[in-house]
Structure formats: structure tokens, C-alpha cells
Specification:
It is a single chain. The protein is mainly alpha-helical and about 200 residues long. It folds into two domains: about 5-85, Rna Polymerase Sigma Factor, Chain: A (Orthogonal Bundle); about 95-190, Winged helix-like DNA-binding domain superfamily/Winged helix DNA-binding domain (Arc Repressor Mutant, subunit A). About 70% of the residues lie in helices and about 0% in strands. The protein is built from ten helices and no strands. The chain has helices at about 5-15, 15-40, 40-60, 70-85, 95-100, 120-125, 125-140, 140-155, 160-165, 170-190. The chain is globular, with a radius of gyration of 19 Å.
Length: about 200
């Protein structure tokens, strides 16, 4: 934990209101960004950010410093964001077995997966494709979505994602790989139309 965060936590635990204000200033953009990348709704992201800062304030005395303060804040943000999603109309999730590629006994793909990555830059420019990609991301199961958002959208390093989610490096890499396969399979029909 950085010296600045360590001092900030001590001051917050001592009940200094200016420390809380500084923490909000330091973390508001990151909290909002993560909340928005999970909920994809400005109003929901604002609600999540407000709830996160209230929880941090109310639970600051439970922070033991075993992980970085930023990881603790990210974890709270993810939890509140997913609770917000659950409170909305349930998003239909598709079982992984229906979406993931099928494999042969030797480990090779049983079916051909088209490589649409060459055309992806042109397609990504349209708002229609952004909506379709967002819909696919929203269908990811929570565990995979959390890793995908933190790693591929927020751009956090694997080690930081491990710290936030309290997972091992192999577990993060496995969930990230599964989420990418899920999205590739889910989006392949759409992108195949552009080849």
C-alpha cells in the first residue's frame, strides 16, 4: 500500500472528514469508470459510486491492510456493481456449453472458428457493433465478467486483478481465456457477416 493511502486510511479511521473527501477525489474517476464498465449505464454507475463511497466510509475500520487499499475499493465497486445489475431486470445468461467451442479428444477444435479479427477495426466503428459487443459482455457470467472488465477494459495488470478478486494468477488467466472464448464465439456470427 502506498504511503499516501496508508496515511489516508489512518486519518479516515480516526474520523477526519477531510480524509474522506480526499479519498473520494483520489478514487472517484476509477470507481465510476469500473462501475460504468460493469453496468453500462451512467445513472447506475453514479448510484454505484455513491454507494461505494458510503460503504468505504462505514466500513473503513474493517480494512486491515492485508491488500492494497485500492484493491479493497475495487472489490467493493465490483460487488456493488453486480448487485446493481441483479436488481435490474435479469439479463439472460447463456450456458457456457452452448457458446464455447467444442473440442476433440486431442484438444483441437471440433468445429471451425472463423478469424474475423482482420475486419474487426472497420466493424468496431459502428454504434450497432458496439451495442452487440456490449450485449455479449453483459451475458458473461459474473466471475468471468469481473476478470474481463478489470483486465481487458480497465487495463489493470494480472497481478492487480488477482489482488482485487483474491484469485491466483492461473485462475485469473483461465477466467480471462474463458471470457474471451465466450465473446469470440458469441460475436462470430455478427462479424462473419462482414467478411
Amino acid at each position: 500500500m502506498s504511503d499516501n493511502d496508508l496515511q489516508l486510511v489512518k486519518e479516515m479511521q480516526a474520523g477526519k472528514p477531510e480524509a474522506f473527501e480526499e479519498m473520494v477525489r483520489n478514487y472517484q474517476k476509477r470507481v465510476y469508470s469500473l462501475a460504468y464498465n460493469v453496468t453500462h449505464n451512467q445513472s447506475d454507475a453514479e448510484d454505484v459510486a455513491q454507494e461505494v463511497f458510503l460503504r468505504v466510509c462505514n466500513k473503513i475500520n474493517t480494512f486491515l491492510g492485508k491488500a492494497a487499499f485500492s484493491s479493497w475499493v475495487y472489490r467493493i465497486t465490483l460487488n456493488v456493481s453486480f448487485m446493481k445489475l441483479k436488481s435490474r431486470k435479469k439479463i439472460q445468461q447463456i450456458p457456457f456449453d452452448d457458446i464455447f467451442p467444442k473440442y476433440q479428444e486431442d484438444g483441437f477444435h471440433a468445429e471451425k472458428i472463423n478469424d474475423w479479427s482482420q475486419k474487426a477495426d472497420d466493424v468496431l466503428l459502428t454504434s450497432e457493433s458496439r451495442k452487440i459487443i456490449q450485449k455479449a459482455i453483459n451475458q458473461l457470467p459474473e466471475k468471468e465478467k469481473a476478470v474481463f472488465v478489470l483486465r481487458d477494459i480497465e487495463g489493470l495488470p494480472t497481478e492487480k486483478v488477482c489482488d482485487i478478486l483474491k484469485l491466483s494468477v492461473p485462475a485469473v488467466k483461465s477466467r480471462l481465456h474463458r471470457s474471451r472464448l465466450f465473446l469470440r464465439k458469441r460475436l462470430s456470427n455478427y462479424f462473419d457477416d462482414f467478411q
